[in-house]
Amino acid sequence: MSVRHILTTVSNNALPITVAVLACGTVYLLRKYQYRVMGSETNISLEATLNTLNNTINNTINDYTAGFTEEGKSCIQDGVIEVLGRSYSLPEDREAYEEDVESFLWFSYRRNFRAIGGTQFTSDRGWGCMLRCIQMLYSHTLIRHSFSRDWRWKFCPKYNAILRDFLDDPNGLYSIQQIAKAGCSAGKDVGTWFGPNTAAQSIRVLSEFHKDLNLNVQVVMDNFMCIEDIVFFSSNEHTGEWVPLLLLIPLRLGLSECNNIYMEPIKACFDLPHNVGAVGGRPNSAFYFIGYQGDRLLYLDPHVTQESLSPDSIDLDRIPDESYHTRKVDLLPWEQLDPSIALAFYCRTRNDFDELCGELRADITSGPSSLFEMAEERPSYMTPPRRHPLDKLPENYTAEYEDLNTEDAADTDSDGFEIISNS
């Protein structure tokens, strides 16, 4: 998209952008008044407010230009395109390819949902793109867990139940409210930005409270994957049987930009049959990656603001789901990719996991372009795993937010290596 095209867009939509600027300024002044006059302990920084302003302007432009190049055409070109282990040749396979893309649940910014408890946030626009991306990744994992990779979008009660868990409802298992609250436990204030590692950890935390799904979520840390530990956590402690696994692997592929030696291994990950995508993006924007074409990564974009569906105003047994699916995808050139990314793999059986490990050794973790280290056994210097890492959290965990306290949440990025800081 050219500079001239963007300036024309801004000119044509000056009113909503002006409103966004005035709204951010008003919010900032009210927050300073609260802090200085009313004695609030909330830490409001000018930098954070300016970041919100910047994101709001960018997202307003995105809302009006999403889905088109300057010529008004899709950026997808004819040729081979890879989508999570499926290869399509365009234009011959276009319908099958679009049906595949459309079958992913698409979560984007929403407005006018119930305020996240303890805050005034009724929209995640400007800060929630990584939360929406991890929703897309986890919902696809649940669809794969409940059906198969070949499932295509159609109504059925089991699919409807999955979607219900992601609605913007404080009682939804994986709602924006729940993920934001889980982020507080990692030092992320509601309304601040997540990186891939924080998003992965938030889903892991939430999964601990929903064991009835029979799905184990594990996050590989420090670019080191210990097979012995993963098998330990993926085995039922009473029967020893395998528990289906979602394996999340946060990575750092460079300092301020991605090293080119990692491009082919990252692309190879999307060819693996157990891959369920990746969350990452470019600086200031998070995306859900589901494949590639040439040297560009294919992604679903959460940066479109839609009206939230209130659970009180819809039939929860037949959720109107048209706004949760799209055939619109984009391609991100490798050189624009932020170096922080989290890969994800789903292994229904132990054989699936063993197969994945073999594929990772062959194509992903060998040679100078190795993405991370793998070891069969735990090194002696590592702390042995414990079965219940969250055993100190209350057993009667609830999605209500009246007692949510984020006063002690750090305003810095606890992930350390993450660069994606804005949405």
In terms of topology, how is this protein built?
Blueprint: H1 3-12, H2 14-36, H3 46-65, E1 79-83, E2 86-90, H4 94-102, E3 110-111, H5 129-146, H6 157-164, H7 176-184, H8 196-207, E4 216-219, E5 224-226, H9 227-233, E6 245-252, H10 263-271, E7 275-282, E8 285-293, E9 296-300, E10 306-307, E11 330-333, E12 340-347, H11 350-363, E13 373-375
Parallel strand pairs: 3-10, 4-6, 5-13
Antiparallel strand pairs: 1-2, 1-8, 6-12, 7-8, 7-12, 8-9, 9-11
In terms of structural class, how would the helical and strand content be classed?
A: alpha+beta
Order of helices and strands: HHHEEHEHHHHEEHEHEEEEEEHE
- Inertia-based shape: globular
How far apart, in Å, are the first and last alpha carbons? 20 Å
Low-confidence spans: 1-13, 33-45, 60-73, 390-419
How does the major sheet shape up? 9 strands, mixed
- Computed over alpha carbons, the radius of gyration is 21 Å
